[in-house]
Design a protein that fits this description.
Strand content: 15-25%
GO biological process, one term: defense response to fungus
CATH superfamily of one domain: Ribonuclease Inhibitor
Main location: membrane
CATH class of one domain: Alpha Beta
GO molecular function: signaling receptor activity
Largest sheet: 18 strands, mixed
CATH architecture of one domain: Alpha-Beta Horseshoe
Distance between the termini: 75 Å
Number of helices: 3
Number of strands: 34
Protein name: Receptor kinase
Structural class: mainly beta
Shape: elongated
CATH topology of one domain: Leucine-rich repeat, LRR (right-handed beta-alpha superhelix)
Keywords: Glycoprotein, Leucine-rich repeat, Membrane, Repeat, Signal, Transmembrane, Transmembrane helix
């Protein structure tokens, strides 16, 4: 008998049409055992799960490809280990608790296991390594504890390994370097420590790497330079330190998102990143970078996000802000943050020629002078504008009242003069307005 059984979404067993005719008592008993462990069934999906009707007529059990969704709570039954022909189990986004049953290791045909977004506790069973046909193992967003089993390196067919948002501890297992088919690896939001092992260099198919919010240390992992397929490198909120190689951008021709924020990197931001022409996001805040921002943004025409806030950037020279000119070629730019640095000079007029898609512009906490240009109203999609704690002079232009999407405007601690323009009263989306510690005069407009 050819049988393909899958439990999809919250619970949906999919059988071939031949199963409807032939049946399988072992699988029926296994599913009844699974039912016995469910403590909450608000949709009464299991009301039909009894031996008075054929298995293929049970709610959520389909002979074909129909999928249904219900909401379940309770423990995951060890009876599922008896479903010998099961190839996919997806119990994501339920309220299952307690541990992952050891018996799942008996599912030798298993290709996909997704238990994410539950309340599962305990350790990852070591014997899951017996499921040698697994291509996708997704256990994220639970409260799993303990080490990542070294034996996970036996799952050499894995394409996706998601363990993020748990309470896992210990080191990055060297054995993960055996998973040479791996394309997506997420270990973020745990308490892992130590250095990223050199064995990672063997994962030449890896596209997505998420290690953020852990306690990893050492320099930017040298093993990554061998992974030219990487599209995402997320290392934020760790203890990484040291300089970035000046030629870093040459190694990652497919890179789209580079997240290195809230670490301890220092030195210059590599100008070679201008060669990574597919970049969408550069996120480097809260480090110790010095020098200037690269000026080759002409090549990064797909850039959506640039965040270099809270570093030590800027030479204290009038050309500190020249990089803004090349950003005008980034026609899809949505977020620009270079606040809390050491930039000086006059606010470039080219700021008003930034992308009309720009939603957030922050350059607070520098020593930027000059006036706010009237053409700031060109940035029609701005919802956050923070120019505070600088040396801006002149008046607040009336045109700022045409930024209809503005929700937060912060101009405090500058040298602005004149009156508060009444046009600010036109900003119906405005929630936060900060104008203090300037040299403004006159009355507060009634519409405020």
């Amino acid at each position: 008998m050819s049988l393909s059984m899958t439990i999809l979404y919250f619970i949906c067993v999919v059988l071939t049409d031949s199963y409807y005719i032939l049946g399988n008592e072992t699988d029926e008993l296994a599913l009844l055992g699974f039912k016995s462990q469910i403590t909450e069934d608000p949709s009464r999906v299991f009301a039909s799960w009894n031996q008075s009707v054929h298995l293929c007529q049970w709610t959520g059990v389909k002979c074909g490809l129909t999928q249904e969704r219900v909401s379940l709570a309770g423990t995951i039954s060890d009876h599922l280990g008896n479903l010998s022909l099961l190839n996919s189990l997806d119990l994501a986004e339920n309220s299952f608790h307690d541990g992952i049953p050891q018996e799942l290791s008996r599912l030798s045909r298993h290709q996909n296991l997704n238990l994410s977004f539950n309340y599962l506790t305990g350790e990852i069973p070591v014997n899951l390594s017996h499921c040698v046909n697994l291509k996708s193992l997704v256990l994220d967003h639970n409260t799993l504890v303990g080490l990542i089993p070294y034996q996970v390196g036996s799952l050499t067919k894995l394409v996706r390994l998601y363990l993020r948002n748990n309470n896992l501890t210990g080191i990055f297992p060297v054995s993960i370097g055996n998973l040479t088919s791996l394309e997506e690896l997420y270990l973020s939001y745990n308490s892992l420590e130590g250095q990223v092992p050199a064995s990672l260099a063997r994962l030449t198919k890896l596209r997505l790497l998420g290690l953020s919010v852990n306690s990893f240390s050492g320099e930017f992992p040298p093993s990554l330079y061998n992974l030219s397929s990487l599209e995402l490198i997320a290392l934020s909120f760790n203890h990484f330190s040291g300089n970035l190689r000046s030629d870093l951008g040459h190694y990652f021709p497919n890179l789209q998102r580079l997240h290195l924020g809230n670490c301890q990197f220092h030195g210059s931001i590599p100008s070679s990143l201008a060669n990574a022409s597919k970049l969408l996001q550069l996120d480097f805040p809260v480090n110790k970078f010095t020098g200037n921002i690269l000026k080759g943004f002409d090549n990064l025409q797909n850039l959506l996000w640039l965040n270099v806030g809270s570093n030590h950037l800027g030479y204290g020279k009038n050309d500190d802000l020249d990089f803004v000119n090349s950003l005008t070629n980034c026609s899809s730019l949505q977020m620009l943050h270079f606040g809390d640095n050491q930039f000086v000079g006059t606010l470039p007029h080219s700021t008003v020629n930034l992308s009309s898609q720009l939603q957030r512009l922050l350059f607070f906490g520098n020593r930027i002078g000059g006036s706010i240009p009237r053409e700031i109203s060109n940035l029609v999609n701005l919802n956050l504008l923070d120019m505070s704690n600088n040396n801006l002079t002149g008046s607040i232009p009336d045109s700022i009242g045409r930024l209809a999407n503005l929700g937060s405007l912060d101009l405090r601690n500058n040298l602005l003069t004149g009156v508060i323009p009444s046009s600010i009263g036109n900003l119906t989306e405005l929630v936060y307005l900060y104008l203090g510690f300037n040299r403004l005069e006159g009355n507060i407009p009634l519409r405020l």
